[in-house]
Structures are given as C-alpha cells and as structure tokens.
Protein 1
Amino acid sequence: MSDGEGPITARSLMKTDFRTIESDRPLREAMELLLDFGDQRPPLPVVVMHADGSFAGLITPRALFKGLLRKLRPEEVAALPEPDLLAAMDGQLDLPVAEAMVRDMPRAYLDDRLITLMKINCEHRQEFTPVLEDDRVLGIIYLTDIFHAAASLAITHDAEGIELPPDEDEGLSH
C-alpha cells in the first residue's frame, strides 16, 4: 500500500501480474486461461486487448458463460436436459472473445486515490478494475485490495487506532 508516504492510489494497489488475450482469439482459449488459475479463488480475469495492444475489455467466468449460452433464453437454460444444453452451446467456443467480453466497466488510472476507487467499485459492482494509462492496461485492482486498504485506514485512523465502546453487559459472551 502506501506505507504512510502519501495517499493510497491505484498505482500502489494494482497487481501487475495478469493474463491477456487478443479480442479475435476463440473463447476456447479464454476458457483455458480462466481454468488455469491455480490456487486463486475466484479465477483471475483475463484482459482482452485489440490487435494494437489497447484495452478492449475483460473476460471473466460469468462473461464466458453468457457467451456460451447466448443462443438460449434464460427460461430455456433451466428447462433443457443437459445433452440439449451442450448441443446448444456447440460451436460457441469458436466465437471470438470479443463476442463475450465485458466492455462496459469502470477503469482506474494510476493516480486515482482510494476514495475514487471505492466509489467506482460501489457504483459498478465489479470484483476488479483495470488500471489504464494511454488505453493500455498496466494492472488490475481487486475489490478485496481496495477493502483491505480502506479497512486498514479506518483501523489506524490515529496513532491509537479506533477505540471501541465498552460492552454494556460484560457478562454476555458470544
């Protein structure tokens, strides 16, 4: 984070280790990247780039599901037997990532402060936010990192931390 030297910004919170895929690659490749997340829970998003390297969007497990099921109405998904559902998804993995990626999402910039990042994530309900400079992704900020930074500020608001009021009934236990 900021180690007490200046404000907490996107630059100090972002993770620079992320995966990328070009927007014209098939969903099958994006799925392979999403499946190869090791011990990370939830799976890391994959940054989608245009051929020129500029930011196009993100592919997430939810976006991939929507891409696979795009030919079906929600009520059909629940009613179809599994073999028919798999048949309806046949060929969808060959679609380009651009057909399923999340395009409309908040973006952060290197010098965005913690309060801006908190506001962005409250308004858009994303688990992660890409950090851009000149339309290039430099990193990803996870909601949990924003939460930890905000919580650590709240806990260490002053040198003595937050003083909790004494329990009204000290005899009660949880």
Protein 2
Amino acid sequence: MNIGIDIDNTLCNNYERVLNWSEIYNCSINGSNNKKDLNTLEMKDVFGWTQEQENEFWTKYIDVIANNLDLRPFVKEVIDELRNEGHKIYLITSRINKLYPNILNITDEYMKKHNILCDNIIFEALNKLDICKKNNISILVDDNIKVCSEVSKEIPVLCFKTLYNQNFTCFNTINVSNWIEVYIEIQRFLGNKEYNLDIFKNIN
C-alpha cells in the first residue's frame, strides 16, 4: 500500500516554533505580539498581517525554522515499521522552491539528519488529491483542514490534530493526536487485528 504523509505539522511539529518566530517578527513591525486568531494555520491571519508582510516573514525566517524543527514522537519508528511491512511511504509537501530557494535542500538534509527513510518526496504539492490519485495513495496523513476536506472526498485521511484544527470533523476522515494512533488506525484500515506495538515499548 502507498501511504502519503505531509511534512509540516504532521511529520514535524512546526506550529509552536513558527508561532514563536512570528511573535518576534510581529513585535518588529507592530511593536506587540497580540494575536487575533489562533484557529488558523496562516500567520497573517493569526496576527492580522498583509500578504506582503507574511511573505517577508517567511523569506526572513524559513531557513532557521525549517532547519530546527522537532520530529513528532515515534514518527520514525512508525515509518520504519510500515516500510518493514512492505508499504511505500510518500512524503507529500506544499513546500515551494520558487518562493524559498533553499527549502528542497534543507528538507533533504533534515531527512538525512533524522534518518527518515521514504520511497519518494513530492514537493510543491498544491493539489494533494491529484497527487494522491496519480501515485495510488491509499491513505493520507495530513493536518491542513482544506487538504483533508478535499482529499477525503475520494481517499481516506488521518487528520493530525494541532492547535488550529481541534474542532475539525469530516466524512472519510479520522482524527489522530499522535503517531501511535496513526499506526493503529492504518492497521485498522488494513483490517489487521494483530500488529507490532513493540515499536512503542520505550515510551516513558
């Protein structure tokens, strides 16, 4: 089975780190870090920026943010186990090289640094439903509400819960809060009643 996995806020824990750097930038342009809306993925909506200001923020901070993201707990163990079971892992991301020239290299180096093995990385995935269909993806793990809503019309989705999508529900979508739940839900999707939970034996 081909499994699609988003990178930002799904494989990595982006939101809190991005929010911290956004507060620094917001103070530099507005003199405060007052937040308008935390129930959104876009920093321009969180702080009330213009599109131009958001573009300036990402241009200024994308490298330092992308180089210092934390992997979500057990994501490597789950990906390794799924590949051991014979499944193919496709990392599907909307990271765009035209806007951020170093982002492809940064992403590749990040995966090498954390020893994340996959079968393909697809960048500039602005229409994930089309990409999932072209690559015969059977299930997608993502956090973006718009992506989950669109892809789930035709392909099952595991929606990774984050600060901004807590109340999201959708047909053909199961909400998950961690990578243990991701693994279990994929096994249920496959119809497996027995599966390897030893990969989580080092939980503290």
